[in-house]
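Data deposition worksheet. Section B asks for the primary sequence of the deposited chain exactly as it was used as input, without tags or linkers unless they were present during the calculation. Section C holds the resulting structure in token form. Section D is free text for depositor observations; keep each observation to a single sentence. Incomplete worksheets are returned to the depositor.
Section A, Depositor: J.P.
Section B:
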Amino acid sequence: MRHGKKINHLSRTAPHRKAMLANMANSLIEHKRINTTVAKAKALKVYVEPLITKAKTDTTHNRRTVFSYLKNKYAVTELFREVIAKVGDRPGGYTRIIKTGTRLGDNAEMCMIELVDFNEIYTNSKEKATAKRSRRGGAKKTQTATADTTAEAVNESPAAAETDTKEKESE
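Section C:
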């Protein structure tokens, strides 16, 4: 029976597990996505999401608390600057696990864990929709536009053309 055993030890000692999760969290914050096994990704999700929640309020105490977990000042500044700028309004669920199949050597289940708001494919960033153009209509308009500009060029007086050439030569 596994009463009260909520943590996956991942077949490692406590210091090894703590160091591994800190390194994986640093890589996740720096690169925004990493490939790993499903078991490690689930353990990492439990490890990193409270840190992101703590980073929402930028105080010295919270920075020191997050630094005690990550042990990398560059990852801490990245988390408090760029990551929180995107996920600051999200109430939770900052990471996503996408299963990618099995590993060739030992058939372990592999996945990609990523920060949710940094994936351009899944985010709801709507770009401006361009108007649809038909091929026939566009060609006629461009021909008439070029005909209008040539007609204006022909209608110019010769004196105006001479002043234009003098201005170009002076430049």
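Section D:
The longest strand covers residues 95-102.
Helices lie at 14-31, 38-54, 60-70, 73-87, 135-155, 158-170.
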